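Justification of resources, computational component.

The compute hours requested in this renewal are based largely on the per-chain cost of generating structure records like the one below. Each record pairs the submitted sequence with a full structure-token output. That output is archived, and it is also reused by downstream analysis tasks.
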Amino acid sequence: MPVIVNGVELSDADLKRELPLHAAAGNPMRQAITALVLRRVLLDEAERQGLVAGEEEAAISALLASQASAPEADEAACRRFYEMHPQRFMVGELVEADHILFQVTPDVNLDLLRAHAELILKELLADPSRFAEVAREQSNCPSAAVGGSLGQLGRGDTLPEFERPVFALPAGCLAPQLVQTRQGLHIVRVLRHIEGRLLPYEKVARQIAAALSSMSRDTAWRQYVRLLVGRARIEGIDLSDGEPERVFSGGVS
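The structure output for this chain reads:
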């Protein structure tokens, strides 16, 4: 069934370009369609308001800047954030980690891939000593050649969705669940964890202010998108409550 937004049908070509960007999602096809719906809704509203630009991205940016602005973070909010999230401002923290990557590609059956990865994980939890051997056989990462070793990793060296669970894992442990990233599914273990030191607030105040302002802006954008979706004529897909905002937070390409 075709998906039609305000009288415009989403094309197969657009979907083909969008789909790889959501390969790591639980339902890549649905998320790609939702992203295209949101893009169409935003472009239609930009045109309605006379925000004509040479590039579609510029038109969307102009629309959001004019209709969904958000206040800048103040000093009190920045200090609260610093005190509540000290781990974000550590330097010198390192982990020595290994992984096995089951890569997600546009033509892969994600359910079958996940079932296979979970079976391998179960086997390794029972016998972690086989990790390097299994990595060489199964991993789709070049690190397979060295038994899955990623060496020492610092904050910011890897994808955020990989970094969070890896740095939270105690030394000597194999993660009991798969780690999902935009690259695919990972089995991860941490061999060593080297503690860092906390940067003083004054060193990171500007960074925190920028991050909080960005979060405030994203919240305003998601609320505005929800409003536009409610007004739009959308056929062929029933968007669940909160779904557009979740997709939008990941970026509308």
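The longest strand covers residues 184-194. The domain at 93-195 is CATH 3.10.50.40 (Chitinase A; domain 3).
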